Each structure stands twice: as structure tokens, then as C-alpha cells.
Amino acid sequence: MLSFTNQSSPYPVTRNATYAKNGMVATSQPLAAQAGLDILKKGGNAIDAAIATAACLTVVEPTSNGIGGDAFALVWTKDKLHGLNASGRSPKNISIEAVKKSGYEEIPAYGWTPVTVPGAPGAWAELSKKFGKLPLTEVMEPAIKYAREGFPVSPTLSKYWKKGYQAYKQRLKDPVFEQWFNTFAPDGRAPKAGEIWSSPDHAKTLKSIAETNGESFYRGELAEKIAAFSEETGGYLSAEDLALFQPDWVDPINVNYRGYEVWEIPPNGQGIIALQALNILKGFEFAEKESVDTYHKQIEAIKLAFADGQMHVTEEEHMKFVSQDILSDAYAGVRRKLIAEEAMQPEAGEPKGSGTVYLAAADSEGNMVSFIQSNYMGFGSGLVVPGTGIALQNRGHNFSMDPSHVNALAGGKRTYHTIIPGFLTKNNQAVGPFGVMGGFMQPQGHVQVIMNTIDFGLNPQAALDAPRWQWMRDKTVEVENRFGHYLAQGLADRGHDIHMQLEPNSFGRGQIIWRDPASSVLIGGTESRTDGTVAPW
Fold first, then answer.
1. Which InterPro entries is this protein grouped with (predicted)?
2. Are 57 and 357 in contact (CB under 8 A)?
3. Residue 355, domain extent
4. Could you tell me the pTM of the whole model?
5. Are the beta carbons of 127 and 159 closer than 8 angstroms?
6. Residue 271 to residues 117, 275, 283, 294, 423: CA-CA distances in angstroms?
7. Which 3-state string (H, E, C) describes 120-155?
8. 149-175, pLDDT tens digit by residue?
9. Dihedral sign, CA of 399, 400, 404, 406?
10. CATH number of the domain that 525 lies in?
């Protein structure tokens, strides 16, 4: 069992770690967490609770995710960890040549070009089919009700809704984006904190997904509406693209870090970057957390892992190297030797032979779920399918327009993906789910909370509350304004280009649930940088 050196957080927090016995749901929105907990109390398991929470998050946090986004999950049940990749593929008829003919040299962030097939509804249906106890109609009812009847907008949500609205108002002038404004700014502005927002179209869509176990979205009435909107407005997405979608069960990948197994979804996700960084870092001993040398080595390891990830990671069948090559101890040793006293300019090596929501759920039967879903870059592409409330993702923005790159845009391909769920085990027993959402911050957040937990003995809440850093590019590193100034100066002295960032949400939002194997007591932490909550039972 993890041994926590402090049961109260040494960092400014809104709460201490939360303890429960019968079940727990942790996420960034209280209403969504409570929806998941209510499902547990109705006899559902952790998988049902995760689906309920995820569906609810598309309503109560539309600034970060939606029905038209992707999802990944790690599910611990009956002493085994299962991985689900529910990321969608690019349309079959898109290509680098077609995009260039449309006048783009780079893939735009908005409009139809970056839209890929949404995977989240398929994830809900697949998880329910394989592991759920309750009917999907019952599990998704809280989300349907909030969409139909409305909910009071929370403070952090209001802030980012306004930010998103202002950006879209400035950038999205084409009539094709009109439905986004009708749906998310019906009064000509973003809703304020405490105001009620509802979306009857969103409610009808969720109901259709629940009643058909996701079929309507991919091969039914919703698919027809999505495909028709695409055809009428010059999109690439077709009914065939939707009909071909199927979530994939995958074998999670892992590294051993100081006696614990840290698990991630394999590529096309960027979880491999977190694992590679930890594999490099396990070759060092860290005497204390608040040390210039500790932070320096963490940053340098992340830089090396990102250099490899952005060069080599895409859908696995297109990768030059397999995950085992990148995560080998031998390759970690080669990369570790590059870490010196001064900050480096990272370059990819040659191993031999990124708006997101995260949730964690656990029940009294031993089931645990690490789940993440996103529309990407806030609200996504700016496209909302008329009459459905479906905001389509812009995940294809991550494709490369360089034909020689492993992540080059091509039809029917999954792109390099930023969203990653994490899971921790020891001695073949579940410790629990963890995650930190936030674009390319995610593997960096995973490294930081795992080291906070294992190396420095922080409880889940303290591990999340600890000041964070984020490597941006080259030698540029952003740190939170709570980050020790003497540490920032020490890193600058080693050649890092340090920038103090005032916006806390730039450093991700995380959740953790650990289980004590002796007592089965659940210990949870949630993000103090947003409206996060832990719903215990």
C-alpha cells in the first residue's frame, strides 16, 4: 500500500483527501460526479457510474467535451485491466492533396477539415455492453434530464464558456457555424455563473443514443443528420465513415516504476510519453521534491520523451518503432545519459527494434475506471449538427501535412491523440485510476502526480494540489504562480527559459482514486484548479 507522509496537504487546497468505502466518483463538475454516484446507489457498478458521469459531462461542461468527441478508458474488473480506444478515424475521402486544394497548407483548427469520426457515444455503448449492470437508458437519464431541464452554470465553467464564445465570435464568421452560436450562446453571449442553460436538442440526442445503444449515432437517424450536414456544407465526413466506426479493445502498456506498474493506453495516444519519461527518471534517486535538481531532471526527461513521441507516435500500424522498443530499459538508459546539469535542446532518438474532461470511478465490488473524453481545443471544430446539439470535435488538427511524417494526414486514419487515462497497480492488485487532462500537459501531469505519490508520499489531494510546471517547446518552461521563486530562479540558472503563468487551468485538471488493498477503503483527490469534486459513498 502507498505510504503517505502527510495526511493533510502542504499546499493551498479547498479540501483534504476524501475517504469512502462503498463507492466514489471524482471529476471536474459536481453535478456529473453526483450523477455517477446516484447510479452506484441504484445498483450500478463503477462502469455504469463512469458512463453516467461522462454523458453528464457533455451537458454540464460543454467547454471541454461533447457528444461529438473521442474517449479512452482503462477498466479494472475481476483482477484484470482492460483498455478501450474509442478515438475516431479521419474521413475516408480526405487527403493532404484535397486539403491543399481547399487552400490550406496546414490543417485548420475549425470547420470540417479537422473533423474526425466521434468516438464517445461508441465508448459509452461498448462499456455498457461489456461490463455494465444497468440499462444504458437508466444510466444516461441524469444527463438527459440536465440537458432537457437545464442546470446552473458553475463559476469556472462560466469563465471558459465566455472565453470560448469571444474567440469563436471573432474567428467563426461563416454561416456554417451559426448552429454553434444558436446552441451555446442563444442570448448572444455566454451564460453567466448561476444562470440556467439547457439544450433540448442535446437531450433528444442523448435519449436516442441510450435507447439504441449507440446505433442511431453511427448507423441510424443521428448518423443521417450528421452526414447530411456534412454533404450540404462541404464536409468530408460521410455516412460510410460513421457506419464503419467501432471502438477497439486494446492491451494497455506499462512500465515498472519503483515497484509499481504505471499503465496507459497504447498509441495512437500519448500515454507512452509519460511512461518513457518515468522509465528515464527511475534511474535517478530523488532526495526531496522541492529541489532544483528534481525539477530539472523531470523537465529534461519529459523533453526527451516528447521529442520521441512527436517524431514516432501515431496509430500503431503506421509507427516505425513498436511501443516495447520505446519503453525498453536499454533505450531509457541511452536517453538518460543525455541529461546533464544544463537545459538541453531536445531531439528525437532512434529506439531500436492538447479541452478535455477526466473522471475516475470505483465501487465496492473492486471495479475501477479511468475515463477521459474530449472535443479538443475547448468546444471543438465550431460545428454543431442542426437539431442535435452535437458539437463536432476537431481532433484532426493534430495530423501532419508532411507526407513523410508517421502522423501524416490520410483517409481512414487515427491521429496522434492527446487524451490519456492512467492506472496504477502493484503486485497484480489495483491501486487505482488517475488522470490529468489538458492537451499536451497530460503526460507531464501524469509524471508529476505519479512521482508526487510514489517518490514523495503525497496523498491524492496533495499530489494534485502541488504546484505544476509545463514544458512548452525548446527550453521554454511555464510554472504556476505558486511555484517557489527560488526554484524558478534555480532552473533559470541551469538554462531553462522560465515563465510564470497566472492562469491555473493551463496546468491541467486531474482526479485520483486509490484503493487500500487491506481495508478496501477508497482515497480520492480532485482538482482544486476548477470546480472539481469527489462524490463519496
1. GGT-like_enzyme, GGT_ssub_C, Ntn_hydrolases_N
2. yes
3. 1-29+56-115+248-470+478-537
4. 0.95
5. no
6. 21, 7, 20, 22, 11
7. HHHHHHHHHHHHCCCCHHHHCHHHHHHHHHCEECCH
8. 999 999 999 999 999 999 999 999 999
9. negative
10. 3.60.20.40
